Amino acid sequence: MLRNKLLLLIILVNILFVQVSFSQHLHPGFNKKEYIEMLKISASFGDSTYINAFPKPEQFHFVYRSPEVGLGNMWDLWTGKDSIAVISIRGTTAASISWLANFYAAMVPAQGQLQLSATDTFSYKLASNPRAAVHVGWLLSMAYLVKDLMPKIDSCFNNGIKDFIIMGHSQGGAIAFLLTAYLRELQLSNALHQNIQFKTYCSAGPKPGNLYFAQEYEAATQQGWAYNVINSADWVPETPVSIQTVNDFNTVNPFITAKDQIKKLKFPTNLLMRYAYNRLDKPTRQAQRNYQKYLGKMTSTQIKKVLPDFQPPAYAATNDYVRTGNTIVLLADEEYYKLYPNDKEKIFTHHFHPPYLYLANKLPD
Asked: For the whole prediction, is pTM greater than 0.85?
């Protein structure tokens, strides 16, 4: 009797294992072949010459392309034979409206609202920490994309698709960071199906927010569900320019009492140290205010020419942009520079899909 029960238990466990094995199409961890396939999908946003010169996706077929929305933003839906859907977000185009999204680089809190029009408010939460902040231009882009994205995610889910890969190259990668955080927060609040699995490949992604946003994003995805792949020769992942002030440190730090400690020093050491401290502290504070003035308030006037009903939000007093997420470095070597030499007249030489594909192919399997 006991032997029969054990045998039955083993059979049931094996059946369950087989069911799980066949139902789990996405797996955590960086997958070279998976990333290369995503590169091929992403490249399909280029013009005909660009597309024809690049390898075609092998495992996925095109389903849908969104209309152009917001600041010249667009996304594609692709599906694969293993019931995996790909959300592919377009990067920066040559249009000035697309570059406006990049230059609108003031930060806003990572939770709040964007007033898209008098009757359209986009509520969002990308992190819980009240000090977390993100790039307002890419957040605005995401807000418009989400309107078209969410019904398609629901439709895919209703048709049995529960696994999604989010892919974005360049500006698309920046938006992919924010979209990933947004969708995960929706799941945490039960506003989106819990059993949908998202995996993200940001490619050539710029820095999307400050340290407090990055920490929450990384904590949520560090088990292998999100990556940022960068070419070491590419300047775009080094942007936006970061300005760190003493206000960007954690609450407990030596700077909060620095001025009081300096006062306790003997004359003339106290005067010299106060002078030195102010020379280091004040320029960064002024640079941050200028950042907010020119790449926030002034740029928003250009944004309103494109989106006249948009109401610029209150900006966060930080521009401490940091590299975010699990990073896969495609290291440019001597052979690479023979194929893609540095050329000051061709500033995107190292940023396009072909050099990324070349270096990705050199990664170990």
From this structure: yes
How would you write the pLDDT of the chain (365 residues) with one tens digit per residue? 445 544 444 444 343 333 333 345 899 999 999 999 999 999 999 999 999 999 999 999 999 999 999 999 999 999 998 899 999 999 999 999 999 999 999 999 999 999 999 999 999 999 999 999 999 999 999 999 999 999 999 999 999 999 999 999 999 999 999 999 999 999 999 999 999 999 999 999 999 999 999 999 999 999 999 999 999 999 999 999 999 999 999 988 888 887 888 888 888 887 888 888 788 889 999 999 999 999 999 999 999 999 999 999 999 999 999 999 999 999 999 999 999 999 999 999 999 999 999 999 999 98
Residue 294 near residue 57 (C-beta atoms within 8 A): no
What's the Cα-to-Cα distance from 23 to each of 79, 160, 161, rounded to whole Å? 16, 11, 10
Distance CA 224, CA 215 (A): 15
339, burial (CB in 10 Å: exposed 0-12, middle 13-18, buried 19+) = exposed
* 233-261: b (≥16 Cβ within 10 Å) or e: bbebbeebebbbbebbeeeeeeeeeeeee
Domains (range + CATH), the chain: 29-361 (3.40.50.1820)
In angstroms, the CA 167 to CA 41 distance is 9
Q: Which residues make Cβ contacts (< 8 Å) with residue 91, sequence separation at least 6? A: 42, 45, 168, 169, 170, 171, 172, 173, 204
130 upstream amide cis, omega within 30 of 0: no
